[in-house]
Structures are given as structure tokens and as C-alpha cells.
Amino acid sequence: CRYNYDNWTKKQAKEYLDWFVSHFDEQADYVLNKSYEEFGINPNTIKTSDEKLLLVWRWFLKYARKEPVPEEEKDEMWYYYKSIGSMMANEYQLSPVTLIFARDIGMLMAKLWLEDVKNLRWEVGYPTAKKNYFHNHPMLSGFIFTVEDYDNPGSTKQYENRCDPVHIAETQGVRILRNA
Question: Which of 4, 28, 70, 71 could form a disulfide with 107 if both were Cys (CB 3.0 to 4.6 A apart)?
Fold first, then answer.
């Protein structure tokens, strides 16, 4: 279920981003509707992004599974789990179906953020930085942070950041299942 983003050309990364963006609404709606159905909840009663995310994580916890990492895959998995600071490295991984659940939840997170924060946009992550874990990943960009400007005490500066919502959902999935 993991893509080998590192070996993609810029064209392949852009094609995947285009596919991803064209499907993320559908997948986000799917996971949210499955959660409504599972718990017998009227969608009109869930209003906020927080309530929607709590509901889908509750659904995730009910169906998500971890599995031992096969010996021959431990080195490859170490690279992935080390990047998210997981103690599950070399022990467990999310099952393939659970990775799909996490991807769909990441897509829902992206949809909700895009509804709430108007300046966000999709882009290919770090297309020229092959050593960056997020190289060629679909990324949401446009998160504006205000920080203290240490070069000018008493003043602040803004910078823009980006994130991979699927990676965030996978990370949370690992953390949720760590002790399950």
C-alpha cells in the first residue's frame, strides 16, 4: 500500500497529485458516511470538523489492525517508521486495509482543512529534495505561522509551511494502535 515516491519523475508525481486531488472528496465522504452508518448517526447532527474527525477515528479504532512486520521488510519499514518517530518500528505495521482507512481519513482531514482555511492549496511535496521523506508526496501548502523574529527582538515574522495529511493520519493510526 506504500508508494515508492522516491523513484517517481516529476511528471509521475504531478499525475499522482492530479489523481489524488480528483478523488480526495469522494474518499473523504466515503469514510465519513461509513462512520455515520456504523454508529447510526444522522449526518445533520454532526456540525463541526472536530466532531467529524472524532467520529471517524472512533470508526478507525473499531476496524483498524496491526500486523507483525515480516523479517525481510524490517529494514524498509524502519525507514518509514523512524521518520514518524514510532516505537512500532521493526515490530508492527498497519495492515494494508488499515493503511487505506488512514489514507481516507487523511483525505477527510484535508477536505475539512480546505473548507476551514481558504489559502491552502495542493502541491507536490519537495520535488527536488530526494532525501526528504515527503519527496513527491501530495502536500497541502499555505499554512501560515507567525513566530518570534530572533534577529529583531520584539518583532515577529511569518512563514508558510506544508503538510502531508495522509502521513499525519497514518502517524495517528500507528499511535492509536500502539497499545491496542
Answer: 28
Question: Is 101 in contact with 63 (CB distance < 8 Å)?
Answer: yes
Q: How far is CA 51 from CA 33, 39, 140, 170, in A?
A: 13, 13, 22, 19
Contact call for residues 33 and 55 (beta carbons, < 8 A): no
Total-model pTM: 0.82
* CB contact burial 27-45 (16+ within 10 A = b; e otherwise): bbeebbeebbeeeeeeeee
pLDDT tens profile 47-71:
999 999 999 999 999 999 988 877 7
Extract the C-alpha cell encoding 144. Answer: 501560515
**For the ranges 2-11, 20-29, 150-159, which has the lowest average pLDDT?**
2-11
